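request received
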Amino acid sequence: MEEKVVNAIQDEYPDDFAWCYGCGRLNEEGHHFRTSWQGEQTVTVYTPKPEHMALPGFVYGGIIGSLVDCHGTGSSALALHRKNGHEPGDGVEPPRFVTGSLKVDFLKPTPHGTLIKAVGTVQEIHPKKWKVNVEVFAEDSLCARGEVIAVVMPDTFLKSV
Amino acid sequence: MEEKVVNAIQDEYPDDFAWCYGCGRLNEEGHHFRTSWQGEQTVTVYTPKPEHMALPGFVYGGIIGSLVDCHGTGSSALALHRKNGHEPGDGVEPPRFVTGSLKVDFLKPTPHGTLIKAVGTVQEIHPKKWKVNVEVFAEDSLCARGEVIAVVMPDTFLKSV
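response:
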């Protein structure tokens, strides 16, 4: 399993938008999820902290939901950036998305103590609205399926910063 | 708005099941969500920490998802406990639920710096499967809607502890 994320979209966000508790590189207390292309799919990897448990031995569902959430917005940003002719690292500021809806089906308990990996398939459903189907694996075991509808960040958000 | 949660279902879980990062009273690093009846509905309140932001000024969606998740399992436990003739505080151990699915629609950005409140309506859809419709408010503003399908904790979970 590929475990290293290079050219993450979150590395490209301007500082004003890098504070997300899930994926902001400037949020010292956050999870620092980082999302990149892996072929035609997207990937985010994370190793839950010891306290991120539902019960001892199993990962807390809210952490999986958070991973799916940020994986969805990051994947959508990657996809629209590519549609616009750009890739992380080329110096062009990427678009930013917010989450419209988040859905997670928990298929089986997710074992704690190993890396978990979100793999996404991105689809444009509207120029400003993208759907990301997500599978979450622990080792090679599929533990959850998710779907995120991500929306290009509206001006109201931008103006408020 | 009622802000104090008394007779929370999470206070009744046996120690072995009190480690959830979202709602376990024994998880020192966790959110300590606590869920109780409020009339025929259920309520969980939480004040996000400073770092729980999406952008400065707005709450991170993953925290809202986590609140909805634990509110769903806690509400289901309250409802089945009541169906069985019991209320928190009467000394009888309540049932425990796990999350089958989680869905959150983000209706508007949730302002940071105030208490947020999940209000739930619980419905039995199978003796071991309950549905909780959730509304999340910041002050009096409805910011998100959620739905949780919660399932009575299977023996596989119990045996693993």
